[in-house]
Amino acid sequence: MQLSSHLRRLLTRRALPLAIGVLALTGCNPGAYPFDYFREMHYQQSQHLLEPQRLSPPDGSVPRTGGRPQISFAGARDLQNPVRSTPDTQKAGVALFKVNCAVCHGAAGNGESFVAQRFTANHFVPPADLASSRVRNRTDGELDWIIDNGIGGMPPFRDLLTEDQVWALVNQVRAVQGQQR
Length: 181
Ligand code: HEC
Fold this sequence. Notes:
Elements: H1 2-26, H2 45-50, H3 73-76, H4 87-100, H5 102-105, H6 114-121, H7 133-136, H8 140-149, H9 163-176
Helix pairs in contact: 4-9, 8-9
Bound molecules: heme C.
Heme C is lined by residues 35, 37, 100-101, 103-105, 115, 119, 125-128, 130, 134-135, 138, 143, 146-147, 151-155, 157, 169, 173.
């Protein structure tokens, strides 16, 4: 009797964090983010079955179009944002933010969202308040790198968004901080 109530308590209290912990450890590459909240369609078995076989490029080949060189965080520091803030890029930034970021960072970018509550409840570092001094003090290049590569529980976006889209989002993060550039 005692054992079963102990078990039940263990299960109810520990099951969710445990499940998320296991998820975190197994990593669910591609992406390898600890909190795989979006199952992307192209990772699904059913989707793979529909795809033609891909040939791997020969070793050492470099992309002629697309593809981004992987640079270090320190190396990204002084990158200049090539996307100027115009009404068009601002509109694109707002739309991209709604689709890709608001679910975690909240519509206002202040880190308040349902998903953020789940992060906190499960003892993960929650999505940042994008107007916080930590994020303000980042350079544009650092923000670009963070969105490209992810950080902590935040997934990488380099394979989902184009370079220009990521830079438009950097401008959008500045807009959240009240710094329209
Ligand atoms: C799955 C939830 C999630 C999504 C989606 C997400 N983020 Fe994050 N983000 C986080 C978390 C969690 C952190 C805090 C990571 C840490 O500090 O360990 C974070 C941190 C950040 C930071 C601050 C990093 C720093 O150290 O200064 C920026 C900037 C940021 N996110 C921008 C974005 C943008 C822009 C998008 C949309 C393209 C986005 N995030 C999408 C969860 C998310």
